[in-house]
Amino acid sequence: MVSLVTNSPEYMCLWRQQHPQYKEKQREYLRIWRQKHPEHEVKHRRRQRLFRARHPNYYQEYRQNHPEVFRESSRRWYQSNKERRNKLAVIRNLAQRKVKLDVNCEICDSTENLERHHPDYSKPLVVQTLCKPCHNRLDKGVD
Ligand SMILES: [Zn+2]
């Protein structure tokens, strides 16, 4: 039996493994803590940004050193998105040939950077005319 110092990361790790019932509690506690400390999220983001700026290749290197972690999931992601991408490309192409754009954006009346928006890709010829900023906002689900 290895004696471990209480509060050391190793000890905590072991303790957590032996007490899985506290996992839920801990998650709940963390959630509440985050709600009480919204500034932490901002700090965390800033630190993350800094870290990425200082170690621009960290993620890339991690990927290279642990290819097995990514191989399977990226293959699956690529496969499922390839089909989707192809389908969407065909629909966009069809709409470009068949549907004319209006002269202004349906949301803000702008007449610049107009694009076709598909509210429903199962209806390729139902197209809204939107300007680029409105289209981006809509796709992100922001009103
Ligand atoms: Zn617009």
Describe, in short, the structure shown:
The protein is mainly alpha-helical and 143 residues long.
Structural class: mainly alpha
Helix content: 55-70%
- Poorly predicted regions are none
Q: Give the biggest sheet.
A: 2 strands, antiparallel
Number of helices: 6
**Topology as H/E string?**
HHHHHEEH
Widest beta sheet: strand line-up: 1-2
- Small-molecule binders: zinc ion
Mean pLDDT: 86
**What is the straight-line distance between the termini?**
59 Å
Shape type: elongated
Radius of gyration: 25 Å
Q: What fraction strand?
A: 5-15%
Would you report the number of β strands? 2
Protein architecture, described:
This protein is elongated. By secondary structure, it is mainly α. The site of zinc ion (ZN) has 8 residues, from strand 2 and helix 6.
Describe how the helices and strands are arranged.
Layout: H1 9-18, H2 22-36, H3 38-54, H4 58-65, H5 67-98, E1 114-117, E2 128-131, H6 132-140
Antiparallel strand pairs: 1-2
The structure holds zinc ion (ZN).
Primary descriptors:
2 strands, single chain, elongated, mainly alpha
